[in-house]
C-alpha cells in the first residue's frame, strides 16, 4: 500500500500543480489580457474533481478521514481489532458498489453517449472516471486494512 499511497500522492501533487497553473493562467488572461482563455475554467473543474477523489483516496489510505471512535476506544483491544475490520468491510462494500460499480457504469454511459467537454474537446467520461479509478485505489486500501496482520494486544485503533 505504500507504493499505491506514494503514486496517489504524486498524482495529487501533479493535479494540484496543474490546477494552480490553470487558475493563474485564467486570472492572468482575464485581468491582464482582457479576455480569459476559454478552456481554463473547464479544465479547472476537471482537475478539481480529480483532486477531490485523489484526496479522498489518500485520506482513506492514511486513516485521515473523520471518524467517531468514542465507542471503539472503550472496547477491549481484541474487540477494537474486530470492530476495525468490520468497519473496513462495510466501507469496502460501499466503495465497490458506489464508486467502482456505479462510477464505471456512469463512465461507460458517458463514453457511449459521446458527450464532450466543449472547450477541452475531450469526452466527459474522462471526468467521471475519477470515481471508479479512485474507488479501485480505496478498495485496495480497504482490503489491506481488513487482512492486516495486526495483533490484538498492539491494536490502538490506528493502522498497524
Q: Given the helix and strand composition, which structural class is it?
A: mainly alpha
Question: Could you describe the largest sheet, including whether it forms a barrel?
Answer: 2 strands, antiparallel
Alpha-carbon distance between the two ends: 12 Å
How much is the average pLDDT?
90
The residue ranges in which pLDDT falls below 50 over 5 or more consecutive positions are none
Radius of gyration: 20 Å
**Looking across the biggest beta sheet, what order are the strands in?**
1-2
Tally of helical segments: 6
Strand content: under 5%
How many strand units?
Answer: 2
Counted up, domains total 1
What would you say this structure looks like, in words?
With 160 residues, the chain is an all-alpha fold. It has one domain (2-154). It has six helices and two strands. It has a two-stranded antiparallel ribbon. A hairpin with a 4-residue loop joins strand 1 (116-117) and strand 2. Helix 1 packs antiparallel against helix 2 (39-61) and helix 4 (77-113) packs antiparallel against helix 6 (130-146). The protein is elongated. The model has no long low-confidence stretch (mean pLDDT 90).
Amino acid at each position: 500500500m505504500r507504493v499505491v499511497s506514494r503514486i496517489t500522492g504524486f498524482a495529487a501533487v501533479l493535479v494540484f500543480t496543474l490546477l494552480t497553473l490553470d487558475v493563474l493562467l485564467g486570472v492572468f488572461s482575464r485581468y491582464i489580457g482582457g479576455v480569459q482563455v476559454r478552456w481554463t475554467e473547464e479544465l479547472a473543474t476537471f482537475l478539481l474533481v480529480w483532486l477531490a477523489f485523489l484526496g479522498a483516496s489518500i485520506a482513506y489510505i492514511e486513516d485521515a478521514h473523520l471518524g467517531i471512535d468514542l465507542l471503539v476506544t472503550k472496547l477491549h483491544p481484541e474487540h477494537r481489532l474486530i470492530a476495525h475490520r468490520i468497519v473496513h468491510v462495510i466501507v469496502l462494500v460501499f466503495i465497490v458498489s458506489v464508486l467502482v460499480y456505479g462510477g464505471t457504469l456512469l463512465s461507460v454511459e458517458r463514453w457511449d453517449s459521446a458527450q464532450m467537454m466543449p472547450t477541452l474537446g475531450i469526452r466527459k467520461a474522462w471526468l467521471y472516471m475519477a470515481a471508479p479509478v479512485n474507488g479501485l485505489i480505496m478498495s485496495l486500501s480497504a482490503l489491506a486494512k481488513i487482512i492486516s496482520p495486526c495483533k490484538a494486544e498492539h491494536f490502538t485503533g490506528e493502522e498497524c
